[in-house]
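Hi L.,

You mentioned the student needs an example of a multi-chain input paired with its predicted structure. This one should do, with 923 residues in total across all chains.
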Amino acid sequence: MDKSFSLWPTQASKQALHVDLFYIFMLAVTAFFTLLIAGLVVFFAVKYRRREGAPPPEKFENVKLELVWTIVPLLISVVMFVWGAKLVVASSKPPENALEIHVIGKQWMWHVQHSNGRREINELTVPVGRPVKLTMQSQDVIHSFFIPAFRCKQDVVPGRFSYLWFEPSEPGEYHLFCAEYCGLQHSGMIGKVKVLPQADYERWLSMSPAGEESMQVAGAKLFSQYGCATCHSQQGPSMAGLYGSERVVWSGTPDKEQKVIADDNYLRESILYSKAKIVKGYSPALMPTFQGLLTEENVSQLIAYIKTVGKDAKLGNEMTPGGRMQDLLPPRPEMKSRNSDSEKRDYK
Amino acid sequence: MTTIPVNPELTSPLPLGRKGPSYLDISFTVKSWLLTLDHKRIAILYLLSMTALFIVGGAFATMMRLELTTPQGDFVKAEAYNKLFTMHGVTMVFFFLIPSVPATLGNFLVPLMIGARDLAFPRINLASWYLFIIGAAFTLAAMFAGGVDTGWTFYTPYSSVYSNSQVALAVVGIFITGFSSVLTGLNFIVTVHKMRAPGMTWFRLPLFIWSNYAAALIMVLGTPVISITMVLVAVERLFGVGIFDPANGGDPVLFQHMFWFYSHPAVYIMVLPAFGVISELMAAFSRKPVFGYKVVAFASLAIALLSFVVWGHHLFTTGQSVYAALVFSVLSFLVGIPTAIKVFNWTFTMYKGSVSLETPMLFALGFLGIFTLGGLTGLFLAAVGLDIHLHDTYFVVAHFHYVMVGGVVLAFMGGLHYWWPKITGRMYNEFWGKMSAILIFFGFNLTFFPQFILGYLGMPRRYYAYASEFQVLNILSSAGASILASGYLLPGIYLAYSFVKGPKAGDNPWGAKGLEWQTSSPPPVENFKKMPIVTEDCYNYPLVDPHDLQPEDRLIDSTTKDDDKLKEQVKDKLS
Ligand code: HEM
Ligand SMILES: [Cu+2]
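Structure written out for the whole complex:
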C-alpha cells in the first residue's frame, strides 16, 4: 500500500485500466466544455461590456447555432453511454473458472471464508492473475465492498446474495473500504486486500490453522445435525443435481406454477423461509423453517455442501439419515488435497 | 462607497402606487406579520426562517470540515460526526435548498411578474409557511433530543431498525414539511394559470415563471412519494412491521427506489427555479432577451418530466440488473441535453449585448462556470461503468455540491441581490457585494474541486477518519471552506445594514424590463395601483425610450369589479 500522496489511484486489476481510459476521455470532454464556457463568458463580458457610446444591444437569434449545441452534446452522450455500457456488460458475468470466496459483512467488519475453510477478518488474500468471484452476504444492514485499486464495488444487501468479481493484476496490498454508510464505525470498516503470487497464495491457503474445516464439510455436518437428511433422502426432494437446475414451484396457490432456477438466493430462501416457494408435488407442511436457527454463515456452508452434492449425484442419492452421514464424506485431509489439486489444474 | 443606480434617468418618477404605504410600511405589529396574507410578507417570513436554518446547516458543515483536516478523528468522535453530516444534509436539503428560491423569491415575485395582486390562495400560502416551521421544529427537536445518525438519505434497514437515534422525530418533520412544498406548488400552478394580467400570454411569461411552474409540477407530483416513504420508515421503526427489513420479510432496496423516485426530481425542484433566476439576470444585465426564449422555456418542462425516470442511477451498485442499469443510464444522459442547451443559451445572451458586471451578474457568471462543471461531472455518474467506482465516494459529494451549492446557492444570492432594491426599497453596498461574490466563487472551488480527486482516489463519503494519503486534499478543502464561509457571512452584514441605512433605490435601479419593475419599491400591498396590461414580449430590450418603462397607457383603472366592463376596457386600450 502506497501511503504517499498521489493524484491517481493505483491500478491493480485488469478492469482498472479500462475504467481509467474511460475516465480520461470523460476528463478531456469535461475540461474542453468547462474551458469553452468559461472562455466565452469572460470574452463576452469584456467585449460587450456596457460603455458610453457603444452600439445598442442587437437582437440575436440563430437556429443553426442552437442545433449545433443540441446535436453535439447528444452525439457525445451517445459515445459516453456506449462506452460506459460496454464496461459494465464486460464485467457483469464472472468467468467460469473464477475462484469462489465467501464474504459476510457485519457491523463493522468483513468476514472472509475460503472454500477450504480458511478464514480471515478484514483481510482478503487472493492470487494474482486469476479471476476471483466473491459471494457476499450481510448479517445486518447494507454494506458495500469497495476496492479502489481494482475499480470495483458492490453493495452487500441483507436478505440476498451479492456477487462481485475481479482479476488482480499486481501483487501488493490494497485498501478495502465499506462504501455504504452502515452506522457508528462505518469509517472503521476497512481492511486490506493482499494479492500474492500464485505459489505464495497456495502455500498461504494450505497453512490453514487446525480446527478449520472446509465450507462443504461444515455444511454436510449441519445437514445431518439439523436432520435435513431425514427428509431429503426420502419424502423430500433430493439434493442431487439440485444446484443450478430448473425447479417448478408454486407460492400461495398450487395452480399458479412458476419456474425458477435453483441459485444461491433460491436455496437461501428455501432453507430460511421454506413456505415461500413450494416445489410442485410437495406439501408446504413438510419442511420446517430454519429462520432464527441458522446464521448467514451456516446458510452459506449448507449451500456450499448442496453444490457439491449437485456435482456428485451419487453422494446425494446414497444419503441416509443419522450418523452414517459422516461415513460418506471423505476424511478432511483428503478433501483439502482434492481441492488444491483442482485449483492447480485451473491455473493452466 | 455608495451605490450608483445603473442608469439614473431610467428611474423616472413613479406613476403608480404613490400614495398608499408599501407592504413593509403598512403595519408594524408582530401580529400583522404572523397573520399576514400578503405573499410579499410571507416571502420575507420564509427568507428569515431559511436564513436561520442555513446558518445552522452551515455550522454543522464547518465542524465537519474541521474534523476532516486530520485523518484520525480527533476533533469529534464517530458518533458526533455521523450526527453532524446527517443534520447538515437534512437541514440543507429539506429546509434550505428545496424551498429556497421558490418560497422566498418565487413567493415574492410570481404575482408581481405576471401582474397579479397575490397568489391564488393567500391563506394556503400562509398555512404552508406554518407547516414549514412546524416541520423544521420537529427536525430540530430531533437534534436536541440526541440527534440522528442515518445520513439525509435514511437508508433502510439501518434507519428503520438498527439506528439508535431520533429517526422517527426527524422523518415526521420531513413529512410535515412535504405538505408545505405541495401547497406552494399548487398555489403557483393555479396562480400562473388563472391570475395573469391581460395580455400576459404563456409565451410572454418571464422565464423565472416558466421554471417555477415546472418546479411546481414536480413538487405536486413527487412530494407525496417521499412523504409516504418517510411514514413507512417511522411505522417500521415504531411497530416493527416488515416493510424494508429483510429479517421480517421486507425489501431494503425498495426504500431506495421510493426515496430516489422523489429525491432525484427534488434536485430539479431546487435547480429549476435557480435556472429561472439566471435567465432573468442574464437578460437584465445584458439588456437583451434571453437567447432562444422558447427553447429555454420548453427545456424546463422537459427537465421536469425526464427527472422522474432517472432515479435508478442512484442504485447502480445495489445489484440492479444490467438491463435496468443501462436504461437508467441512457435516460440520465438525456436529462443532460436540455441542461446543456440552457447553459449555451445563457452564455450567448451576452453576445452583442450591453453587459454590466454588477453584483447579481457576477453571481450569475459564477453560476455558469460552476454549474457547467457540476453538470458535466453528473455525466461521469450517469455512465454505469464509471459510477461503479465513483458511487458513494467524495466524487459524488463534489458533484452534488457543485450543482446544488454552487448552482442553487449562487443563483439564490444573485437573485436576492437583484431584487433586494425591489424588496426593501434600498440599495446595498456594491463593493462588499462584489467582494462576497468573488470570495464565494474562489472559496467554493477550493473547497469542492479537491473532492473530485479524492473521490477518484477512492475516499468513501461519510468517513470521519480516513487513510493518511488523503490528507493533503482534505486540508485544501477545509481551507477553502473557511473562505467560502466568510463569503456567505458578508451579505448577512451589509444587507442588514442596507435595510436600515441603505440609500433609496428607486423603482427600477437596473433599468430592467419586467412588470415587477413597474411598480414602486417596495411595492404597495396590492402590488399595482392599476391593473397592468401587457402588450409586448418579455425582455423586449433595448430600452429605446426610458418612458417605455412607465407606460401609463398600458395600465387601466381596475377599480371596477365587473368582469365584462374590465374586459371591454382592456380591449379599448389594446386596440
Ligand atoms: C441539475 C441538478 C442536479 C442536482 C441538484 C444533482 C444532485 C445530486 C445529488 C444530491 C446526488 C447525491 C446522491 C447521494 O447522496 O448519494 C447526485 C448523484 C448523482 N447525480 Fe446528480 N444532480 C444534478 C444533475 C445531474 C445530472 C445532469 C446528471 C446526469 C446527467 C446527474 C447524475 C447523477 C448520478 C448518476 C448520481 C448518482 C451517483 C452515485 O450515487 O454514485 N446529476 N446528484
Ligand atoms: Cu459497512
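You could point out the following to them. The CA atoms of residues 35 and 118 of chain A lie 54 Å apart. The longest strand of chain A covers residues 99-106.

Best wishes,
N.
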